[in-house]
Automatic annotation (TrEMBL):
Keywords: ATP-binding, Cell membrane, Membrane, Nucleotide-binding, Transport. It is a peripheral membrane protein. It comes from the Bacteria. This is ABC transporter ATP-binding protein. GO terms for molecular function: ATP binding; ATP hydrolysis activity. Residues 5-251 form the ABC transporter domain.
């Protein structure tokens, strides 16, 4: 299966300081790639670069190829058309991503009209209701006129997902979509994303610092630190046979039912993974920075 998204030697710098260093990744149609790392590792910056939403201080070099087109050299208007229609993003904090003084139905409708100005008001309304139903929001005909503060945290995240999938994108970027949610609601959102992936053949870049969450959704996993890709492989490779010391430390820092509550959790040494050795193929499809 060919790649839908390819990053080749992508580097992103802010005022000469590298935030992402020579990153190469790919995602096939319908595949979920989990991008893991602590805060400041370059995960979210990479997502914003794919959507061409970095601020003017950032310099991006290398290739970001989507369905054969290099997004970094795409004309501004063509990129605007692709953003939200072919590639969508879910942000981690719904209350800052949603407009607090605008009904949620109108916000979903805005996402439709931006890419389908030819649609009638009735068509847009039907699409809004369909999107709200797709993410299991109750009574969409009535609740589309409610405001974000009238919904729970999990429901607000569902509204953001409805906005992201209403135009049937091929790639969904989910940036820490469950971080602000409690464990029960988190599980519901993960189930919803799995269902939407199956229903719409969505490819997904799932960004998280939480390896436990990534283990539930990703087909392949890439581990970053300090802007460097340290390890990449199948979910089985990463969780059952991690090779990089940093990946092993991340896994060791996750509490399990077997964890001794009298012992402190593993911590991550600050220098771990800071060296820029070469990525080598440890086993088929399993790459590790030496």
């Amino acid at each position: 299966m060919g790649s839908l998204l390819e990053l080749e030697r992508l580097s992103i710098a802010f005022n000469g300081r590298l935030a992402v260093d020579n990153l190469t990744l790919s995602i096939a149609q319908g595949e979920v790639l989990g991008l893991v790392g602590e805060s400041g590792s370059g995960k979210s910056v990479t997502a914003l670069a794919i959507l061409r939403l970095l601020d003017s201080a950032a310099q991006a070099t290398g290739l970001i190829r989507f369905d054969g087109r290099d997004l970094l050299s795409l004309p501004t208007e063509a990129m605007r058309r692709a953003r939200g229609r072919e590639i969508s993003m879910i942000f981690q904090e719904p209350m800052t991503a949603l407009n607090p003084v605008m009904p949620v139905g109108a916000q979903i409708a805005e996402a439709i009209r931006a890419h389908h100005p030819e649609q009638s008001r009735r068509q847009v309304r039907e699409a809004v209701i369909e999107a709200m139903q797709a993410v299991a929001l109750p009574e969409p005909e009535r609740r589309m006129n409610d405001y974000p503060h009238q919904f729970s945290g999990g429901q607000r995240q569902r509204i953001l997902i409805a906005m992201a999938i209403v135009n049937r994108p091929r790639l969904l970027i989910a940036d820490e979509p469950t971080t602000a949610l409690d464990v029960t609601v988190q599980a519901q959102i993960l189930d919803l994303l799995a269902d939407l992936r199956e229903r719409y053949s969505l490819a997904m870049l799932f960004i998280s610092h939480d390896l436990a969450v990534v283990s539930q959704v990703a087909d392949r996993v890439a581990v970053m630190r300090h802007g460097l890709l340290l390890e990449q492989g199948s979910r089985k490779n990463i969780f059952q046979s991690p090779q990089h010391a940093y990946t092993r430390s991340l896994l060791g820092a996750i509490p399990t039912l077997q964890t001794d509550i009298h012992e402190p959790l593993a911590t991550l040494p600050s220098a771990l993974g800071a060296s820029a050795g070469e990525l080598r193929e440890y086993a088929s499809g399993h790459w590790v920075r030496s």
